[in-house]
Amino acid sequence: MQRWPVLLFLAWACFLFFSGIGLFTSGFLLMRIELTNRSSCSDPLAAPAWAGQGLAPGACWMPQRVPKAVLLIIDALAFEFARFDPAKARPRPYENKLGFLHQLAGSQPRHARLYRFRADPPTTTMQRIKGLTTGSLPTFIDVGSNFASYAIEEDNLLGQLVQNGRRVVFMGDDTWDGLFPQKFFRSYFFPSFNVKDLHTVDDGILQHLYPTVDGGEWDLLIAHFLGVDHCGHKHGPDHPEMAKKLAQMNEMLRSLVDHLGSDTLLLVAGDHGMTETGDHGGDSEKEVNAALFVYSKTPLFGAHRPEEPETIPQVNLVPTLALLLGVPIPYSNIGEVMAELFSGDGGDASAALRQLSAYRLNARQVDRFLHSYSLAAQDLPAERLRHLRELFSAALEEHDRLLAHVQEGLPASPELEARLRRLVGRFQRYLREARAVCMESWARFHPLRMVAGCALIAASCLLCYVASELAAALDFPYRSRLLYPLLWGLAVAAVLGLGQLLTREGPDLVLVSAWAAAASQLAFFWPSWGRRPRRAHLAGGQPPAASAGLWQRLRAWQGPALPMGLLFLRCCAMFSDSFVVAEARVAPFLLASLATLLVGKLHWRGRLTAPEAPKQPPGAAFYQKESWQLLGLLAVLLACLRLSGLFHQCREEIPRCQPSPCLAPLSSLQSTQAKNLFYLLCVASLAGLVCAVRRWLRHYGNLNSASPLVLFVRWAFPLLAVWIACYWAVTSGAEDTLGKLQELVQVALVGFPRAVYGLASLGLLLALWTPVTVFVKDSRESVGPIVTPYQGAPSSQAELLHVIPQIYRRMQESLKSQLDRGHRRATVAAYGLGSVYSAALVIVLTVLGFLLLILHSERMSLSFLLLFLEAFVLLRIHACVVSLAGDAGDLPVRRNGPPFVVPWYAVTAWVFAATQFFYSTGHQPTFPAIHWNAAFVGFQQGHSTHLLPAVLVGANTFASHILFAVGCPLLLLWPFVCEAPNSQRRKLKKELREELQEEEEPMMEMRLRESPERFSAALLQLGLKYLFVLGAQLLACVWAAMILRRHLMVWKVFAPKFLFEALGFMVSSICLLLGIFLVMRVDYAVSAWFERLQPR
């Protein structure tokens, strides 16, 4: 068997796809250019002075309005949380809990005001911090850095404060430490990644907040609370814990106001909102609507109070706070000052003049940034820039004329006030249109790289298809199809890498790998252009399609037409945002359609009915037993598809959608009876999975030996199930434990998952070390005399009575052996040998199921049980179709057992099932739907690195991809496992049936070992087909993202879909290699086992 060439060829095919993904991503998800320019007090941006307006010594750009400011960021403080509605008699848990804000705004309208604080998507914490400090708009690709923050190099508010000698003190979310290293005069950081921890960060802040405020050694104090956000992630907003957390924040604000001085500005802000499930990251109304509350003991606002809270973008906070504190506005800011905070005392004209001074500075800073950015990036529309420049110049000229009018000392008049108001409107229009231009043109694409990436992925799909057809040849040319392409690719990579090292600081790995992949693909296709090989196929000598007639070619394409047609429809639908949004319902429909049409095709061809018997009435048709079994399996499959819809997550684009209650942990249930009922169902599903696997292994004889792997299945499987059940019991009641029990609960929350990780890892190692699960019963006789083991004559009557029966029995056995020696030879009975490959895969899949199950919420165990049941049903349907099809469809003629070719319908159905259960395990291709709490299963105190939590979250997200990719070789093995004697044989007489069974015992998977070359080629062909189907879906997503890159829903639908599809492809391809490697490891172990069974 050619093991390493097959694995190497598949790994090379995966590398080709990875290179295409990397090249396309580098052109599609580019970050905007970040300018390194910085504002300074020496910049000539200040407006000309007017009467009553002047710069004090040490002031910068305009007079300092407040000497100190406290910025309280309550993470995920939605506007609905801060608003108070006294008319609500029965408010929800998150409503009317911040009553102190309402009290301040009502009793002191000139001192306090509440705003709608609108966030710019993506609404993830790190991107919002960047927006709140730089005044710029973070790009989509920054989402991937949310939990691996890097320092902000762009000009920002904290940098300006430090540059001008101000003291910044921070306490709270440690994300700020990575974004602003060495920027704080004093800091108190607390771990932020554990979304299940509601109190550590908040309690740590409260411990230092009041003493720090009273100490006064600060100019800007920032406190970032996380309890509300973590409560939303853990319980959702509509939960009693949210009411407790908001009540805590209310009391904190009440106490803090008592500690504030009269010269201090208080800002209470939410960085984003949250959905009804407590998530965020997208751009829905609930996610972008946060709250901002402004308060000072000195009057800030005019007498006029708006009826409804004003809506302001979050980037407006940066220029406002910078000018209030007397420091320059950060260079890259595109926000607009909050003009009412600059009114001051005096009449309307005086207030308008102060506001215009702030607007002029703000507009000149934005104009300077747009000019610098257009020179560096050259992606802002020139026509729009000219229009903005005209608006700015006109407003500036009008402002100069008004200032000249004021300098003349003329009294204020209604006409002057009207002119001032119109000029304020001009500046507002310019700033808002400038921000809109940036929002529209912010994403910079690299069209050449995107097109090249698409071409590379398309060529990889074509290569997989062509190679899968060539792999059917008995003498697949590994040298010309693998060795030469690899050498060409390495040579091109070496030349490009060396050239870039000589001309640049370092090589562009994405570009080098893409060129190497393209060169190796060219080397693969080059031999095909000169000649078309004509070889014997695996199916048993079928002529190649090139030498067949038109009818044979059409008939050969009839089989793949059905699955390829459905795959083509799925790929075409990737260009519709409605399809992507509704894919959770479309994927089961496609799988059900494929299975139903396949059965209908068999019925149309008459493969479900039995051959006509002599006594059969004319026109009567009787279905075979396998046909009824196939129809029953189809019914079970449709039931599984229907039940899997109970575990779906909702997308915000689907109105009136309620997420499955099974997604929430049991601890969120208020009813103890319901909690106990669901817990028993979860434990029952876990026990059912263990019992089903053990029963299958026992049925095929793979649970009889004393090998380490079999002992692991016997003892470790129940132990793993018990540990997982205990972990579920602890997590479901962890919130109710008190006192010393809380310490035991914390130990259990860490101990049980880590024990599962360790024992499951041991099982995977055993599966690789000793994968053979065969019990040997040797009936070969040793040559020896028929004598008693006693030496000499019996010395007593007791010994004689003991020896005589032994001699008699030995004589009987010898006589029987001599009589049977003419027609029956001694054999070695090996139990489980016919399913040795499948048994190892089933064991590994079950162990992986345990690992992935503990990363999900308890009630997802029901979905995992459906996953394994549906996979088993698909395999049985495949085996029945192989048994019934004969030479129908895309299956070749079966001779001496099932074919060595897995048809396209089986591979396509397997991929569709993986996609279906991606949604049926509570996932969606959106960032808010990621189950971040999986990173803390067994790691309650957090992580020291980002690698392990990324692996845990990735395993949770792509659980179905992992299981179906590792189990992909079962599509080849299962028809051999289900191989049985023909049904006609059961009608023979008993004696003749026994004789036939002795001569033609079903070999099952051992038939694969009769032709090792065909076995390895079949594995290669299966892997290439699987990669082709995955690659076709990936190619459709890539094309959709590229063609629709200016679509309104590109960053909300198409870009996340591409990212999830690309990551799913990478995970699936790696796990596919692991599954095929396991089969080859079993084959090697079986070969060694046969060598040990040589005749003695």
Would you write up a description of this structure?
By secondary structure, the protein is mainly alpha-helical. Strands 4-3-5-1-6-7-2-8 form an eight-stranded mixed β-sheet, with helices on both faces. It has a two-stranded antiparallel sheet with strand order 9-10.
Ordered list of secondary-structure elements with their pairings:
Elements: H1 3-28, E1 68-74, H2 79-82, H3 99-107, E2 112-118, H4 125-134, H5 157-163, E3 168-173, H6 175-179, E4 186-190, H7 200-215, E5 220-225, H8 227-235, H9 240-259, E6 264-269, H10 285-288, E7 289-296, E8 311-313, H11 317-325, H12 348-377, H13 382-407, H14 414-441, H15 447-470, H16 478-503, H17 509-530, H18 550-573, H19 577-581, H20 583-604, H21 625-644, H22 672-699, H23 708-732, H24 740-769, E9 775-778, H25 797-820, E10 828-831, H26 836-854, H27 860-885, H28 904-920, H29 947-957, H30 959-966, H31 970-977, H32 990-999, H33 1012-1043, H34 1050-1092
Parallel strand pairs: 1-5, 1-6, 2-8, 3-4, 3-5
Antiparallel strand pairs: 2-7, 6-7, 9-10
Pathway: Glycolipid biosynthesis; glycosylphosphatidylinositol-anchor biosynthesis
Main location: endoplasmic reticulum
Organism: Chelydra serpentina
Core attributes:
1096 residues, mainly alpha, eight-stranded mixed beta sheet, two-stranded antiparallel ribbon, 34 helices, 10 strands, 5% strand
Distance between the termini: 27 Å
Read across the widest sheet, the strand sequence of neighbours is: 4-3-5-1-6-7-2-8
Radius of gyration using CA atoms only: 37 Å
How much helix, percentage-wise, in residues? 55-70%
GO molecular function: mannose-ethanolamine phosphotransferase activity
Protein name: GPI ethanolamine phosphate transferase 3, catalytic subunit
InterPro entries: Alkaline_phosphatase_core_sf, Phosphodiest/P_Trfase, PIG-O_N, PIGG/GPI7_C, PIGO/GPI13
Pathway: Glycolipid biosynthesis; glycosylphosphatidylinositol-anchor biosynthesis
